[in-house]
Amino acid sequence: MKKAKWVVPTIYIIFLMLPIYWLLNMSFKTTTEIINTYTLWPQEFTLDNYKKIFTDSTWYTGYLNSIYYVVMNTVISVAAALPAAYAFSRYKFLGDKHLFFWLLTNRMAPPAVFALPFFQFYSSVNLFDTHVAVALSHCLFNIPLAVWILEGFMSSVPKELDETAYVDGYSFWRFFFKIFIPTITAGIGITMFFCFMFSWVELLLAKTLTAVAAKPIAATMTRTASTSGYELGLLAAAGSLTIIPGAIVIYFVRNYIAKGFALGRV
Amino acid sequence: MNKTINQKAWFFVIPVFVLVAFNAIIPLMTVVNYAFQETFGNNVFMWEGTRWFKQIMLSERFHASLGRQFLFTFIILFIQIPLGIAIALTMPKEGIGVPVCLVLMSMPLLIPWNVVGAMWNIFALPDIGFLGHSLNALGFDYNFTQQIGDAWFTTILMDVWHWTSLVVLLSYAGLRSIQPAYYQAAEIDGASRWAIFTKIELPKMKKVLTIAILLRFMDSFMIYTEPFVLTGGGPGNATAFLSIDLVKMALGQFDLGPAAAMSLIYFFIVLLVCWVFYTLMMRNEEKS
User: Fold this and answer.
1) For chain A, which residues make up each domain, given as ranges?
2) Tens digits of per-residue pLDDT, A226-265?
3) Structural domain contains residue B223
4) Which of B65, B89, B10 is nearest to B240 (CA)?
5) CA angle A7-A8-A14, nearest 5°?
6) In this complex, do A242 and B111 lie within 8 Å of one another by their Cβ atoms?
7) Labelling B138: which of A40, A103, B129, B230 has CA 20 to 30 A away?
């Protein structure tokens, strides 16, 4: 019985890894091999596809652009969400429940609905094709999510902690930064993970709001695929490289995921 | 937790309110503007009243894409939720297996959505893709770019691949929060595995499962990039879900009025379903 338990997760993980393996497999093949033969692993192993990406600036700046706006968005979202989540978890105030639901509705809004107005709006305030524009537009769904997750974590911290600190003569901000934030690091870790994740994977808004200067890697990929023929190997290599930042982030938060989930609302 | 009444708490909420309002209210008003008027560019608008709404509500194209959307969302919820729970139940609870499973299972969640689409495209190509080639070698006549059934099969399989892990992670977190005492009590009572599941684990997972269903509903209802890259909405319009159809109408044909009206109806449907979920969730929370 105990051994049989391993079967389900193992099969599931194999199912998850197969398409990723196939992408890697393609990225190490030459174009002729991809087109002419069906092979389970590269027969003529080549790194040319990767070489092209690391030497061609239209490719590698795409990565830098993406990382730039994703980090910016994560910092803005968490910084703004921390005090708000504290307010929602500790205080009652006029319209709090409505405000919370209104925030959540923005997480529900389909980006396709907002694509065109966003383009017009950010153009009219002269932010079109900047990293700031993408970072700000991703706040639309990341801030509500951050508030939602952080509020769960903060509510699981007993209120006595606040009261004791005030009795000990802490000012509010000193308490908030010295005591409260260290208590919920796991929650902040999880929140940053989710903000990073949703900003990194989103393409529709990022693509709509950029042209050249801030173009994300994902958009570079779709445009290459449509303009310069179907260079599958190059596409596969670029795709494989987009998995790496995510994998690094997961590795760092792996302990938080298990621990953090159980502590907070989720 | 009993909260104190403090109107000054609004000051804490202001940054969030400003940032989200900046992004939500102004663009939404633009949509409303387009939905009730006809425009020929140059900021010239003519009042159209509810004409676009009537046109959309009566159009067969909208009914078809709405139908496809509900069918798709229903199918993936039906597969992902039970599958996610089953995998979470069989995952190791301690040791090296925990981080290994968590890291590997989270991988699909962090891949950009168009890469997911491109990856599945390459994976499912009938001639050089592993999935397509294997299915054809096994004697199935599989071609997702030409046959409607195959296109649906591939899109659903892709979504299951992409998102089941989210359900797994949430269910796993819910399971981990159950005190060992519950299991010990169940063992003393001689409860069956099924009884433990339905009487202890499922009720304890209710909260996280609601979140999982809510998130999966919202995200599958606004799915755009992955099917767009995989099938482009085809063959024909067979996999053109609401967002794909909407973008086609707004940016492809530049029918701004009908597209804006469709956006508002679309948003309203999502809002309605989520409001029902949210109310139920809050009621549950107050009870417990």
Assistant:
1) 1-46, 56-263
2) 544 467 788 888 888 888 888 888 888 777 765 555 444 4
3) yes
4) B65
5) 90
6) yes
7) B230
| Closest CA relative to residue B107, chosen from A20, A221, A222 | A20
Token pair 């929650």 in the structure block, residue: A187
Domain count, chain B: 1
B37 SS3 class:
strand
> What confidence tens digit (pLDDT) does each residue in B89-100 have?
988 887 788 888
Min Cα separation B235/chain A (Å): 18
Q: How far is A80 from chain B (nearest CA, A)?
A: 6
Helix (H, G, I), strand (E, B) or coil at B47: strand
Handedness of CA B98, B100, B106, B110 (dihedral sign): positive
Q: What is the dihedral angle through the alpha carbons of B142, A231, A217, A148, rounded to the nearest 10 degrees?
A: 10
What does the pLDDT look like over A185-221, one tens digit per residue? 878 888 888 899 889 988 888 888 888 778 888 777 7
The count of CB pairs under 8 A between chains A and B is 276
Decide: pTM greater than 0.90: no
What fold, for A56-263? MetI-like fold (1.10.3720)
Q: Which domain CATH number covers B223?
A: 1.10.3720.10
- Provide, as residue numbers in chain A, all residues whose Cβ is less than 8 Å from the Cβ of B244: 112
